[in-house]
Design brief:
With 712 residues, the protein is of the alpha/beta class. 49% of the residues are buried.
């Protein structure tokens, strides 16, 4: 991996992103020009504006200076709206003028993929880092600071309400257009403190922005639209800082497939990386992932408005529609949100208010009869919010009406008095119908646009609070120097791909349980070894040229007699001879046949962006067809390994399957920990490993095959 650039601190970016003076270099009087648009967008800016363009003495009633070097003071930020050809010289002048930071709009750099344009961008980066003057861009469309009414962008002006401390969302986006699209959540009552776009990220990037916003008083949560990075661990460090500050980071990562990844390369010159690795890395540092761009601001707003502490996981549902109650139950089950029944005193309130054709069981259906009893919903809602069984109350809103506006203060009062989120699942197709805006603006009241998103956000809130409040992660005890040295001696084998026997010998140094085996070079020797180990037996060709033996037909299982062993020896040797080009054959491995059990695969690789990764999955069809795996950054702790096992869709197989005893999860997790430790310890030598399958039954856990590939 390339040397990671240090993160900018909040203090290092504060002068540029909290600028009290702005210089527009390339200012223009021509309508529609970027310079003219930026000036228009700063119409309510509370700081000082300087115009720079040698072709003008004045633009309107403002003096225009020939160069940034001629300004009466060093501006906090210089926005460069000139053509690409003169950008570099302008940047040099800005550095000489000791500006606080530089924003560059010009395109035509690394995003083109052309070597000469990449070189232009690299020179800008060298200037920034050499002088210690931060640069945003190139190929970006600017930044917004709502507290200062500062819109340093050519994007059209929009209302800029000043946010209350801790209530707003800081928006970060590699894509300028999509970032400013997120800004329009303002129109549905979502408070925003900043919009920060980075374009090609020649210097300041997503990670630096996260660090900055995590220390901004106005910011309650950070919404991050992210494509990819050549140094993603910088971003993970920034997210860890935000977690420590109690500022939720909600991430939507685009460029998740092969085509998306290719588009990211052409769009921003960044690397998309592996989606599974990104998910594992973001989870490690407490970032909340959403799959859809349209969910990003909603989830961030949920995290801003939800109480700091999550209470009971149980959810109370108070519906006026039986269908909506059923929808809530379905979505809650899908996201693991329990719907417990109310305490007796709460139940008594419900029964006194709800007609017999309704339902007082959670999810509660008060029916349309509430139209004849205006106090029904308030009484039921207060009772359920006061019940310690529930940590939140959900109100489905299938129909938008102006009458609901009158109840908005009531919902806010219940939320604040109970200290619990009152969630309105807005399932009316009138997306911004009456009451939606008022609910969104009411403190303590959360609005989501589907039942599914309500449950997903509630689950994310519980997860985030637990992650934030958990004790600091303690690294798993590492292998001793002697263990590392013993494994390193095995890894010194001449071939890049170790034989199965060599791989198992290396793993055995770490205490990873492997099946015993011996090498035979004749049929007679194979028979003698098989009888000595105890039939039934397994035979496998040992060859450095056949890492995947099943496809070559050089494995025979469950050999019960001496005759079967002898015949199998001849068959595997004959099949090996058919392989083209002819493989080198050391002999035939003889192993005891391991009794049936649940098959588990554990793999690991050294990712060029993330370093060592560990993957765990149920073997057979679950890995090949269902892609049922869990990925984490290595090394992992015992608890993290147990969580990986618990996250598998087919994890119930570990609890007993087809008359097999339940697998000892603690013992299996210990193997995961040891394999992760192995790849982490030997990351400079080992490129990938595969322990597949581990056959598990009760406390018997044995690796019957193994593969180690070293870096080429």
């Amino acid at each position: 991996m390339s040397q990671e650039r240090p993160l900018y601190s909040h203090a290092q970016l504060a002068r540029m992103l909290n600028a009290r003076s702005v210089a527009i270099i390339g200012a223009s009087a021509r309508p529609g020009a970027f310079g003219e648009r930026v000036l228009m967008n700063l119409q309510n800016y509370t700081g000082t504006i300087y115009l720079v363009n040698a072709r003008y003495e004045n633009i309107g009633d403002r003096k225009c200076y020939p160069s940034v070097l001629d300004l009466p003071e060093s501006p906090d930020v210089a926005v460069v709206v000139t053509a690409r050809d003169v950008v570099e010289s302008v940047v040099q002048d800005c550095i000489a003028a000791k500006v606080g930071g530089i924003i560059i709009f010009a395109s035509g750099y690394a995003e083109t993929g052309r070597a000469e344009h990449i070189a232009l961008q690299d020179r800008l980066g060298a200037l920034a880092q050499g002088a210690g003057v931060p640069i945003i861009g190139p190929n970006c469309i600017g930044t917004v600071n709502y507290e200062l009414q500062s819109r340093i962008s050519f994007m059209p002006y929009s209302d800029m309400p000043v946010p209350e401390p801790g209530t707003a969302i800081g928006v970060i986006s590699q894509s300028g257009a999509l970032g400013f699209g997120l800004e329009q959540a303002l129109q549905r009552g979502v408070p925003i403190s900043h919009v920060l776009t980075s374009g090609n990220s020649v210097d300041v990037d997503m990670a630096d922005y996260v660090i900055y916003l995590a220390d901004e008083p106005a910011v309650g949560a950070i919404a991050l639209l992210f494509e990819g990075s050549a140094q993603p661990m910088r971003l993970m460090a920034a997210c860890a800082h935000a977690l420590a500050k109690g500022k939720p980071v909600v991430v939507c990562k685009i460029a998740v497939g092969e085509l998306g990844g290719a588009a990211a390369m052409s769009h921003t010159g960044s690397l998309s990386g592996s989606q599974a690795a990104y998910r594992a890395a973001f989870a490690r540092v407490g970032a909340i992932l959403v799959d859809e761009y349209t969910d990003l601001m909603e989830t961030a707003h949920f995290m801003v408005k939800a109480p700091r502490q999550a209470g009971a996981r149980g959810l109370a549902v108070l519906a006026s529609s039986g269908g909506a109650a059923i929808m809530a139950a379905d979505a809650a089950e899908a996201h693991g949100i329990p719907l417990p029944q109310a305490r007796p005193e709460t139940q008594a309130v419900l029964e006194a208010r709800i007609p017999e054709f309704g339902s007082t069981r959670n999810p509660v259906d008060v029916t349309a009869q509430v139209m004849n009893d205006p106090e029904c919903i308030p009484a039921c809602a207060r009772a359920m919010a006061a019940d310690d069984t529930f940590g939140a109350v959900l109100i489905p809103v299938p129909y938008s009406s102006a009458a609901g506006v009158l109840r908005v203060p009531m919902w806010g009062e219940i939320a604040r008095s109970s200290g619990k989120p009152i969630i309105h699942a807005w399932i009316s197709d009138w997306l911004q119908g009456p009451t939606s805006l008022e609910l969104a603006r009411e403190p303590g009241v959360l609005v989501v646009r589907s039942m599914e998103r309500a449950m997903a956000n509630l689950a994310a809130w519980h997860w985030y609070c637990a992650k934030r409040d958990a004790p600091a992660r303690q690294a798993a005890p590492g292998a001793s120097a002697e263990v590392k040295a013993a494994a390193a001696a095995v890894l010194a084998a001449a071939e890049r791909t170790l034989t199965e026997r060599e791989a198992k010998a290396a793993f055995a140094c770490y205490g990873i349980p492997v099946v015993q085996e011996k090498l035979a070079t004749s049929a007679d020797a194979a028979v003698a070894l098989a009888v000595g180990m105890g039939l039934p037996a397994v035979l496998k060709i040992e060859s450095p040229d056949l890492p995947h033996k099943t496809e070559a037909g050089v494995i025979r299982l469950n050999l019960k007699t001496e005759a079967e062993v002898r015949a199998a020896y001849a068959e595997v040797m004959a099949n090996a001879a058919k392989v083209s080009p002819p493989p080198r054959v050391n002999g035939v491995l003889v192993q005891p046949m391991v009794p049936a059990g649940v098959e588990i695969m554990i793999g690991a690789r050294v990712d060029p962006l993330f370093g060592p990764l560990i993957v765990v999955g149920l073997g057979g069809i679950f890995v090949e067809l269902m892609k049922d795996t869990a990925v984490a950054l290595a090394p992992v702790t015992q608890d993290e390994a147990l969580a990986m096992l618990a996250s598998l869709k087919g994890q119930a197989m570990l609890d007993g399957f087809r008359n097999l005893p339940a697998v000892d999860r603690e013992a299996l997790a210990k193997v995961v920990v040891d394999v992760a430790g192995f790849i982490a310890d030997h990351r400079d030598v080992v490129a990938e490993i595969d322990v597949n399958p581990l056959i598990c039954a009760g406390g018997r856990i044995l690796a019957v095959d193994a593969l180690i590939v070293k870096h080429g």
